[in-house]
Amino acid sequence: MKRTLQVLNELERGGVIERYAIGGAMGATFYVEPLLTFDLDVFVVLPPNVGDLISLAPLYEALRARGYAEEGECVLIEGVPVQFLPAYNALLEEALMEARETSYEDALTKVVRAEYLVAICLQTGRDKDRERVHIFREQAELDMGYLAGVLQRHGLEGKWKQWTP
Amino acid sequence: MDTVKPEIARLFAAKEARRHKLAALPFPEKVRAVVCLQEMAAPLLRARGRKVRVWTLDNRVT
């Protein structure tokens, strides 16, 4: 895992990705009890492309050149299947900008703030997202003022009320 | 209305306390816990035909 994070940092330093942050179940695990997952979800801002199309191809190519193979929707990096998710909307872009820095066994990394993970769950809207919001409310130290701002900016207040009666 | 017996209520409270204790663990310890969960779940998921891979940690003490 430490090497995996170091590879992500190398990709960022090398300009292959502009910015990254851990999200998904492992991002949530940073704030709550350990959650079962088999993928490391990594949100990325990619450098601008010709024609403004979001493409993971240059990133996959750079990883292939380093010897990391694709495995389904993931790339296996130092024993950890990593799923890259481009920041495809304003909420994810903001979540990446506001990600918090932390370290994992001497490797610096970034994790999406808990309040954004909650907002992303609300926006995604699956059953497991609903369950995750419940876990966040029970276990994470959410900054409710900060969360209110995120929800308001991204039109998620209604969903929050609906999911948290 | 049904009420929960005191001993059951105590069990629920203990479970809740354990989850909060787990939530407070340092991140590297949580990652190790996730890998333990993967090891437990992988055989069941594979038996159901799902392809899953247990993570390799750099310096895991087993």
Write up what this structure looks like.
The complex is a heterodimer of chains A (165) and B (62). With 165 residues, chain A is α+β, with helices and mostly antiparallel strands. Chain A contains eight helices and seven strands. A five-stranded mixed sheet of chain A has the order 1-2-5-4-3. A two-stranded antiparallel ribbon of chain A has the order 6-7. In chain A, strand 6 (100-104) and strand 7 form a beta hairpin. With 62 residues, chain B is mainly α. Chain B is 63% helix and 0% strand.
List the helices and strands and how they pair.
The complex is a heterodimer of chains A (165) and B (62).
Chain A: H1 2-13, E1 19-22, H2 24-29, E2 40-45, H3 57-65, E3 70-71, E4 74-77, E5 80-86, H4 90-97, E6 100-104, E7 107-111, H5 114-124, H6 127-139, H7 144-153, H8 157-163
Parallel strand pairs in A: 2-5
Antiparallel strand pairs in A: 1-2, 3-4, 4-5, 6-7
Helix pairs in contact in A: 4-5, 5-6, 5-7
Chain B: H1 6-23, H2 27-47
Summarize the structure.
Chain A is α+β, with helices and mostly antiparallel strands and 165 residues long. Chain A is built from 8 helices and 7 strands; from the N terminus they run αβαβαβββαββαααα.
Low-confidence stretches of chain A: none
* Alpha carbon gyration radius of chain A: 16 Å
If you average the pLDDT of chain A, what whole number results? 94
Number of strands of chain B: 0
For the biggest sheet of chain B, the summary is: none
Strand/helix succession of chain A: HEHEHEEEHEEHHHH
**Which fold name is given in CATH as the topology of chain A?**
Beta Polymerase, domain 2
Secondary structure category of chain B: mainly alpha
CATH architecture title of chain A: 2-Layer Sandwich
